């Protein structure tokens, strides 16, 4: 799990782009529960848990635990760079069938993640990997996700399926929506805080937009009661886009999260 705040631009001669970041450095970018990120045993909610080597219960819906074992294991950590405006860290871990390396770079303008899964099996396998990003917003009920045009949509909460013609996905009650092949980049528009969070990816044909607000039910757990404060915009390769990983081979995914003021929204 990561807790990232953009580093404020401090130089008087900083370029305009950096200066504008001062407008949002007082707002968190990732949501997490500071008292206990592990809300249930083994269920990390908040920050950016990684779902791997499968998402949900896997491509054939027959694997446990939910979202794979990666969010449950300990990693070795190496700090590769640590300066006033740049932190670069490498995490290594092992899961059944794959070794994983996650690179994390935090700067004053972006959070960059790279995830490499390397097969340790002697035969091909299907793997999935998804960054489960909990993005902090001012009011989830007013947010929309853009960059979704052309996606094949499946909302698992409502059963709605089909191609998405419009380039806008409102975050409503019952949003547990898998998007395959959105045009991208995905943009979370947050009118309450007048800003946009942009997710640029490589090797990530799948997105999932999830918020725990339900129209027919109430959740009394922390994630459920905090629904207004975050939207999960998850990115990776899952379900119909599970990765066929040959014996001994690697696959790499990349994600860059940036934040921009949006006075018009
Ligand atoms: O409760 P968790 O295992 O953390 O999963 C939280 C959520 O993750 C994803 O967004 C899934 O699409 C949802 O169906 C699930 O409820």
Brief overview, please?
The chain is mainly beta and 265 residues long. It has one domain (3-261): Beta-galactosidase, Chain A, domain 5, CATH 2.70.98.10. The protein has helices spanning 16-21, 222-225, and strands spanning 38-40, 43-44, 50-51, 76-83, 86-95, 98-107, 111-119, 125-127, 129-131, 134-136, 144-146, 152-155, 161-163, 169-170, 175-180, 186-190, 195-202, 206-211, 230-237, 243-245, 250-261.
Rg from alpha-carbon coordinates: 18 Å
- What is the number of independent domains? 1
Mean pLDDT, to the nearest integer, reads 88
What's the N-to-C terminus distance? 30 Å
**pLDDT < 50 runs, ≥5 residues:** 6-25
CATH topology: Beta-galactosidase, Chain A, domain 5
CATH architecture: Distorted Sandwich
Structural class: mainly beta
Taking strands numbered 1, 2, ... along the chain, how are they ordered across the largest sheet? 4-5-6-7-21-17-16-11-14
- Please identify the top-level CATH class: Mainly Beta
Q: What is the makeup of the main sheet?
A: 9 strands, antiparallel
Beta-strand residue fraction: 35-45%
Task: Determine the fraction of residues in helical runs and give it as a percent range.
Answer: under 10%
Bound molecules: 6-O-phosphono-alpha-D-glucopyranose
Q: How many DSSP E strands?
A: 21
InterPro entries: Aldose_1/G6P_1-epimerase (IPR008183), Gal_mutarotase_sf_dom (IPR011013), GH-type_carb-bd (IPR014718)
Pfam families: Aldose_epim
Enzyme class: isomerase
EC number: 5.1.3.15
